[in-house]
């Protein structure tokens, strides 16, 4: 039986997450802190990290491409990224 992994939100309070986000954006104003978590039922390899500092001018499509490469996904597999349960446009 697999190990149950707590989500980032379950591991850290809203205040802790906000404080860390503010510290990061103060230190790296040209970057956006992003937390990536795998859907529990997803057929994806485990990720080696879940925190990313993404350049503000990087498109969602480019970020998805970078994640796909990092996960060594076959080109026949699709990767979907949701932001607050919404699928953003890849060109934004």
Total strand count, please? 2
Unreliable sequence segments:
none
- What class, by secondary structure content? alpha+beta
Query: What is the count of structural domains?
Result: 1
Q: What amount of the residues lies in strands?
A: 5-15%
Helix content: 25-40%
> What integer value in Å does the Rg equal?
14 Å
Alpha carbon gap, first and last residue? 39 Å
CATH class group: Alpha Beta
Look at the structure and give the mean pLDDT: 88
- Write the H/E string, N to C: HHEEH
In the sheet with the most strands, the strands line up as 1-2
How would a crystallographer describe the biggest sheet?
A: 2 strands, antiparallel
Number of helices, counting only DSSP H or I runs of 4 residues or more:
3
**Could you give me the name of the CATH homologous superfamily?**
Phosphatidylinositol 3-kinase Catalytic Subunit, Chain A, domain 1
CATH topology: Ubiquitin-like (UB roll)
Shape: globular
| Shape-level CATH architecture | Roll
Main location: cytoplasm
Keywords: Autophagy, Cytoplasm, Cytoskeleton, Lipoprotein, Membrane, Microtubule, Protein transport, Transport, Ubl conjugation pathway
InterPro entries: Atg8-like (IPR004241), Ubiquitin-like_domsf (IPR029071)
Subcellular location: Cytoplasm, Cytoskeleton; Membrane
Description:
- It is found in: Cytoplasm, Cytoskeleton; Membrane.
- Its main location: cytoplasm.
- The protein has 92 residues and is α+β, with helices and mostly antiparallel strands.
- Helix content is 32%, strand content 11%.
- It contains 3 helices and 2 strands, in the order H-H-E-E-H.
- It has helices at 8-11, 14-27, 60-70, and strands spanning 31-35, 51-55.
- A two-stranded antiparallel ribbon has the order 1-2.
- The longest helix has 14 residues, at 14-27.
- It is globular.
- The model has no long low-confidence stretch (mean pLDDT 88).
């Amino acid at each position: 039986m697999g190990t149950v992994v707590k989500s980032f939100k379950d591991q850290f309070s809203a205040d802790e997450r906000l404080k860390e986000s503010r510290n990061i954006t103060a230190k790296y104003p040209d970057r956006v802190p992003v937390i990536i978590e795998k859907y529990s039922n997803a057929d994806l390899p485990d990720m080696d990290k879940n925190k990313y500092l993404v350049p503000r001018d990087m498109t969602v499509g480019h970020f998805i491409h970078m994640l796909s490469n990092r996960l060594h996904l076959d080109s026949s597999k699709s990767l979907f990224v949701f932001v607050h349960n919404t699928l953003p446009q890849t060109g934004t």
